[in-house]
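Hey, can you fold this one?
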Amino acid sequence: MTKTQAQLSDLPDDTLAVVTRWNPEGAAELEAGRGPRLGVFVAGPPRAGKSTLVRGLRAVDSAAVDFVEDPVDAGVVLMVLDAAAPLGREELAVLDVAAPPERPVIFALTKTDVHRDWVAVNERNRMLLARHSARFAEAEIHPVAASGSGVESLLAAILLTAGNEAGGARSAIESVLEQTRRMIVSTARSIRQAEPGAELRAERVQVLAHRDALRTERLAQLRSQVQLARVELMHEVAAQVRTSGATTRAEIDRADRATLARYPDRMAQLIRERGAVVDAAVTTRLDDLHTRMGVTPTALGSEFGLTDALSQEGPQQRHRGLEDRITILIGASVGLGLGGLLLSPLSMVPALDIATIPLTLALGALAAWWLTRARGHIAERAHVRQWATEALAHVRSHWEQFVLGRLLAAEAQIGEAVIADSRERALRVDERVAEIDAELRSLAVRFKGQLSSCERDLAAVDRGLRSVRKRAGELDLVDNA
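Sure. Predicted structure:
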């Protein structure tokens, strides 16, 4: 059994389990009797030749070092400088970030075969490094050509520096334990920095914000749309009443006695035609309202139907009053006067003088009859016109009641549909919020569990490190004795 295998077997069981779980490659190397490879972090300004230098080092010995992406995992920092010009603020800033005080640094000057004055640049770099920090006062800068010359000596210097830094006292298993510890610390830091469930909490806030807001917005939209429909339909009712009134007046002015007697039927037909237009306008507007609100229209009850608005039977019989009697007297007087005027030439003949009297009376009676009939026709037109005006007022009231009833019924139906839809949405939101809360609780438990697991594993690795270092100290005392 080798020394490395003995150390690995002497670790506490919990420490060995943590190393196997977190760092299986390091544990496998220790089981095989090998220590972890040296980690090297390559730093330097852009276009300094870092990639070319790394390829050259790997070509010399690919198993000697392991190039890492994080300086925390590196045992040595390789700072690459360009021989084109002395280092400046950019190079020093990179050096300060990549090489903490406890980390050894190897300097390499690349492209020495390209730039002839690289020796002067090298001396200038050594002076600037010594001025920048006392730890770099005796730093050696290894020249490397673009063709690959000097790479082997640079690799030897890296390995030598790493060996001197370890002093031969730190075992391979201690390196694996420290590497595992860095993995655990890095993971725990990432867990603490990450906010578990941020997207779920944002979703929870969003769904709760829209839980009742959509219902309020839709109801406000419904009220505004109903008011707009009311204005438009009242305007349509007024327009149809005006059209009916104009048609009625024109027809009454041209109507004879027979037409006036049948005009209530004509009036009822006209009201039905105009009422159909109003009904169509209301139906179209309400369908548009349902479409805008996203609600399927339902059939209305019979109490909201547009029945025959002209419920009156017709105008009452006109009462013949004093005006008619006066018209008869005026007609008789006008007829007698007109007859006397027309028959005055006959009175000049004695034989026909007696005959003019009955003729004059006949003409007077005829004139009185015609004037009385004409006056009665005019009065009948006025009577029917007055009846039509009152009937249209009744029709307008009925149409407006019909429109308002349909609007109120539609508003109630749509409001109920919106509230029902809002209840379903609120139920879905509550269910989703409950799911989110459960997921957040699960994430919180998982988050605490992950941190607790990292802390337990970190404590196990620390116990293993203390055990390894204590054993190494006891071995040193035995060797010195």
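Residues 1-6, 166-170, 475-481 have pLDDT under 50 and may be disordered. Let me know if you want another pass with a different chain boundary.
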